[in-house]
Amino acid sequence: MTVTTTVRTAAALSRPPAAAPQFLDCIAGDLARVEERLAETTRSDIGAVRDISGHTLLAGGKRLRPALALLAARLVGRHWDEPRAVSAGAAAEMIHLATLMHDDVVDESRERRGKPTANAVFGNGITVLTGDFLLARAISLLAHNDENLHVVRVFSDVTVAMAEGEVLQAHVAHDLEITEATYEEIIGRKTAQFLAGCCETGAMLGSATDEERADLRAYGCDLGIAFQITDDLLDLTGDPRKTGKPLGTDLRDGRVTLPLIHTLKTADAEDRTLLRDLLSDSEISDEHIAAITAIIARHGGFEAARRAAEARAQCAGAHLHRFSAGVYRDALERLARYVVARDR
Amino acid sequence: MTVTTTVRTAAALSRPPAAAPQFLDCIAGDLARVEERLAETTRSDIGAVRDISGHTLLAGGKRLRPALALLAARLVGRHWDEPRAVSAGAAAEMIHLATLMHDDVVDESRERRGKPTANAVFGNGITVLTGDFLLARAISLLAHNDENLHVVRVFSDVTVAMAEGEVLQAHVAHDLEITEATYEEIIGRKTAQFLAGCCETGAMLGSATDEERADLRAYGCDLGIAFQITDDLLDLTGDPRKTGKPLGTDLRDGRVTLPLIHTLKTADAEDRTLLRDLLSDSEISDEHIAAITAIIARHGGFEAARRAAEARAQCAGAHLHRFSAGVYRDALERLARYVVARDR
Fold this sequence. Notes:
344 residues, mainly alpha, 1% strand, Farnesyl Diphosphate Synthase, globular, homodimer
C-alpha cells in the first residue's frame, strides 16, 4: 500500500497540477520543477507522513502561491536562480497545505475540492502532526540555502499572520455585528498577507529594487483580498460540483462574510430580523441556506461583494504599471482577472 | 478578562519559573531574560492568541531547552551575544510549547503538570492555531537576526523530526511487538534531537569548534534519551501529585514504552499472555494499570528502564570531558543526573 502510494505520487507529480490556468503556460516548466521539489521534500522515511503529505499534494490545488513567487521573480528578471526560486515556490505551497490541513481539522471539514480531506481519511491527530511536519520542512528547505534568511523571515511572518487571522475568525464566529473592517482584517491576515509574501519573495529572488518589491507586495495583497472575497462568494453562489464543497459551509461554521455583512447593514428591519432568526438556529439546513441567500440576493449583497472583489483585482493590476509589458506582467494581470472570474 | 490575564502574565513572567532546579542559578539572570522575551514575543494583538499563549507559558514548564542552549553557549564561552542567546532560548521554548499544545490535542489530554491543558480550556481548534502561531513566531524571532540562518536550520530540522517521531509513535500505538530499536527511534526523534539541537545552537552561539559542537550535540542527544525514558517510567511509577498527570496515561493511549517492552521480551508465556489480555481491553481501568505494573515490576522492567536511563545520563556527562571544569560544566553534569533522578 505504501509502495503503491509512492509510485502513484511520483508519476502524478511529474506533470503540473491539472487545475493550473492556461495563462500560466509561460512558467509551466518552473511549476513542473516545483512539483518535483514538493515530491522530494515531503518524502519522509515515516510511511504515514509520506502517505498523508502525498494525499494532500495530489488533492488538486491551484499552486497559486508558487505561481506568484515564480511570476514575480521572472517579471523583475534581474537575476534568476532556479534552485532558489523552485524551493521558494515549493515552500510556499507546503506552508499553504499545512495551514489547509490544520484549518480542516479546526473546521471539522470532510471534503475539499470534492475529495475527502486528510483528517477525514487519516484522523485529526496524524493530520495535525503532518501539518507541523510540512510547516517545519518548508522552513528547513529554505534555511538550507545560505542566502535565504529574508525569505524565511517573510514566510514565518506570514504564517504568524495566518494563524492570528484564523484565530480572530474563530473568535468572531457567529457574531453578526462584525464590520467590514474586521472582515477585511481577517482576510488580510489569513489570505492576503501570504500572497503578498509570495510576490515579495519572488521580487527579492529577482533582485528587485525597493519600489518594485513594494509594488509586487501591494499587488499580492490586493489580489489576496479579491481572491478571498471571491472564495467567500463562491461559498454561497458557486456550483458545488465545481467548488467541490457544499453550499453555505461558511454559514454553517458561523463565518460571517461580505455578502452577509453588506445585507445586515442595508436590509430593512424585517429582513434583518429574519436573517438573525435563520442564523441563530442551532442547525443550519439546506432550506435555511436557500432562504438566507434569497434575502442576500434581494438586497444586492452578492453584487456588492462582487464589485468589491473586482475593484481590488483592478487595484492589483494597477500596481504593475511600473513593469515593462510582456508575458509575465500579462500573466499577473490575467491572474488578477482570473481570481475574481473563476467558478472553482 | 483579557486585561486581567495580561497583567498577571507580565507579573508572573518577571521571575524565572518556579520549577527551575537550583543548579541553574548560574544562569538565573539569563533565564529571567528568556521569560521577558517570551512575554514580549507572544504578545499578539489578537486577544485569544495572547490568552492561550499566556495560559501555556504560565503552566510551569522546566525551561529545560532554553537552559541547555544558555549553558552550552556559556560553557563554550568564546563569544557571548546576549540578545541572540536569549532569543534562541525563547524560540526553543516556544517551539516546545507549540508541540506540547498539538500533542495534547492529538492525545486529547485534559491535564498537564496538574493544570488543565489549553485544549481543555479553549477547545481544540484555537489551540491548534495558537500552536501554529507559536511555531511560526519562534522562527520569525530567529529569522529577524541576520546571523541566525544556521539556528533556523537546526530548529526547523528538529521540528520536522519531532513531527515524524510523533506520527511514528501514533502509527505503532497498541503494537506490542515493537522493539527497543523502534522505541529508541521514536524518543530520539520526538525528544532527543530537540535537546541536541538546543545544545548545538548554544555551542554555535558560543563560537564552538567543530569538536565542541559535536560533543555538545552528543551530550544533548544522550540527555534526551535519558530524559524520555525517565518520563515514560514516571508515567507508570510516579506520584500523580508530583507528575501532575494520572498514572498509566501512556498505557491508556497505547504507547508501549521501555518497561513494558522489556517485560514482554523477558516474561514467561503465562505473564506475557496476561499482559496481552489486559492491554487488549477497550477500556484500561485503574485496576488494569495496577495489574500491569505488578507484572512489569515482577520481571524487573522498571529496573531495566532505570538502568538504561542512568547509563545514557552517564554517557551524556562523559561527552563533556573536553571542556574545562567550572560552574557551567558542573551545571550540565548535574542536569544529566537530575533528569533521571527527578520525580516530576
